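hi support,

uploading two proteins for the ticket. first:
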Amino acid sequence: MNILIRYPAEKALQALGLYYIFTTQKAAENFQYQTFPATNLCLSIYKANTVVKQVSRTQNNCFVQAGGNMHSRLWGFHKKPFDVVIDGEMDQVSVIFQAGGLRKFTRIPYAELMEETDVLEAMFGRAGRDLAERLYSTDRVADRLQLLDQFLLNALHDNNRQQHIDHFLLHLDHQNPNSRVVSMAAAENKDASTLYRQFKQYVGLAPKEYLKVVRFRKALRALQQKMYPSLTDLAHGLGYYDQSHFIRDFSLFSDYSPGLIHKITTVVQEELILIPASKNA
């Protein structure tokens, strides 16, 4: 499987932290991997594949097989590792939206979008369908990149009512997950229940859930890059009570102990952290 990450040329899209992933696989190939919970969302457009999603208390996976109609799906809000199996030929274009970024393009509730089998059409109507067709009318990544930039720039709209949530997101990045929503709301001069409701509508996660995922991703990145003197120091630096609390919390999100994670993960272009099945065996 070939994975290529590219970034928008348009400054307005760059400011959102948005980026694109172009993934292709040949007919004779089979690739399996595992990813971890994150605060971003992935809108994936499939040229001709069948996608089966299995989500339950014990399962969180999807199977992508060759053959099928052009369609798009939204992935994210994982509470545990996400297993992906790709069997056969695939041509996939994905747009990665940072927390709250999708709200710059649609007001459709996340719960509805997560169950849609053609998210582009649900969000943009016929224009979304046209975009998918135009993307797959060319094999050149540069052409696809330009099409995505132009479409998303035209679809982008400002929402002044949500600027305080954007500001709150920046504020949260420096908060401990044990912080109370009430005190955080007071810092923003907002009622706690109102801020909680608006935040969940905008981001898709409650503030405390968001903070826990942010902390997990910081730990994951530090562990993968070996950017810590000891697990105890890393745990305290991230606001955990102690090392045992850190290990327990990290394992809930990843199914692995912190000490093992750097040995089995692979990083794609400094953005994607995943575990190929060959390392997970």
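and the second one:
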Amino acid sequence: MTNRDEPRADGEGGRAPLDALEQRLGVRFRDRLLLETALTHPSFAAEVSGDVADYQRLEFLGDAIVGTVTSELLFRRFPDEPEGQLSRLRSRIVSRSSLSRVARSLSLGEAIRLGRGEEQSAGRDKDRILTDVFEAVVGALYLDQGFSATRELLGRVLEPALDRVTASPERRDHKSALQELCQSRWRKTPAYRIVEEHGPPHETVFTAVAVVDERELGRGSGRSKQLAQQDAARDALRQFTEAAP
């Protein structure tokens, strides 16, 4: 007989949480045990009867895969960036705050198997645990379906993080950054229009808009047309950053 106070090795919610998670991931695991293990916190494994593996080994594997795929995505998106800048951008994308954000977008916390102590201390929403579980799920998918399927998943779920670093203020040329973002998202190049000029000839202030397919992305002003266009691109990048999940 099972102790009523002991966590169940098959998860309290049965298989429904796994079904829902696979739907959010857009993948169907061939070996469900790999996914269950990726969602099993050490505190859960320590409290149940029997030999239950936790996610730590899968996390080790997934961490390396996330780093590799992120490097490739950055290499392709930013063909003119030097190695040092690519390394800085990669560090931002694979940081705990960034990957926990990805985990939340997938509602990973709902499917994690936790021990009583972690459950009571809100472990489902801890950045550290969410990041670990995300990396473990990546490792599990790699073992289950190989690199191609894993890269496809990461390309999808990391896109908002890539958009955020593309729009980062540290990338000074806002027009180039916006062009890269629009090319990545829509395969289109933004256009700029001067929509207003005011002030005396020696102090004219220009207002520009950045558009794609007649859709206004941003608006800015400056003492020259070029500065106004840069300001419009900066405004568009700001809006992209704020809208990213």
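thanks. also noticed: The CA atoms of residues 186 and 201 lie 38 Å apart.
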